Amino acid sequence: MELERRIRIIHFPGLFINGGVETFLMNVVRNINHERFQFDFCVPREEKGPYDNELIRAGCHIINIPRIREVGIRQYIKMVKRIISENGPYDVAHIHSAGFNGVYSVLAAKEAGIRRIIYHVHSTSDESIRGVPLAKLYRNIVSIVVKRLCSHYLACSEEAASQVYGHKYLENSEVIILKNGIDLERFKPYELKELLAIRRKYGIPDNAIVVGNASRFVKGKNQEFLIKLTEDMSKKKKFFLLLAGDGPTKSECELLAERLGLKKTVKFLGNLSQEKMPEFYNALDLFLFPSEHEGLGNVVIEAQACGIPCIVSTGVPP
After folding, report:
1. pLDDT at 2 over 50
2. Which residues, listed in sequence order, are joined to residue 93 by a DSSP beta bridge?
3. How far apart are CA 232 and CA 34, in angstroms?
4. Are 211 and 289 in contact (CB under 8 A)?
């Protein structure tokens, strides 16, 4: 009997370095039946990513594509269309986005002849058009293109879905809210002895109050607020702030911490692997999440699974 052909899916997840999209997709990769599904990932980078080895071991292909800002929109669509054709044929294109850049991948997939195109919204805002004039017009164009060209609509929350698809699509059940699962075998509370050992590794006294945040360093994640909060709290208590992540505003935050005299109490940990994240959460007394906007906030769910109380902004969905 002839074996059933694997369904081939090409993903456009952005840089695929560290973040909510990466967490979601790695959970899928680790649990999916690879005899039934073949995943390929188009990433706009040449350097090696933290998950590349694991993806390759799972049988996934990592395909480098150009950055839009380096080649321009028309050339990007042309090049990605060619890349899809050379590596295909594909049954499905899965675009992970909340904004304008994802639309160009939709156009490339459509021109390459992929009939099933999934648009998956992971955020309630598009950082790429932050502060841009006519941002509302850009968002409306994204919504129109996505609804006309894509065959399936996904989102991580109703709030994220309404930003791109609108309330009408939600009410008509045309959007699938795909819940982001957490592996409770990995994310669980540690014993006191274990967490004290982690704190000592970071150079934190046993009696200190430790708060933390794990996010990409961009304006919308609001890490500056946490650094200023630490300055205020450090006057009253032994107070430490642990910041996991990387991104364009990290250097600004480091300079702010240095200017406020907080080099010893604000610790920048960089991008942590998923294996190290349970350890990070368990080192905390409190997880703080002051984001201006979020599609869902995977890290909050992970922290809660580790038994860590969380304080989040009103920009985070319930």
Report:
1. no
2. 10, 117
3. 51
4. no
Tell whether the model's pLDDT for residue 3 goes beyond 60: no
Taking the C-alpha atoms of residue 19 and residue 41, their distance in angstroms, rounded to an integer, is 15
Average pLDDT, the chain: 88
Q: Which helix (H) or strand (E) holds 309?
A: none
- Quote the distance between the C-alpha of residue 144 and its chain's center: 24
Task: Report the half-sphere exposure of 23 (CA within 13 A, side-chain side).
Answer: 29
- Cα 105 to Cα 21, 127, 245: the distances in Å are 16, 17, 26
Band (1; pLDDT cuts 50, 70, 90): very low
C-beta of residue 88 within 8 angstroms of C-beta of residue 10: yes
**Cα 237 from Cα 232, distance rounded (Å):** 9
Task: Name which residue leads in pLDDT, 306 or 168.
Answer: 306
Q: What are phi and psi of 227, to 5 degrees?
A: -65, -40
Q: Is 59 helix (H, G, I), strand (E, B) or coil?
A: coil
Buried/exposed code over 82-115 (b: 16+ C-beta within 10 A; e: otherwise): ebbeeeeebbbbbbbbbbbbbbbbbbbbbebebe
What SS3 class is residue 242? strand
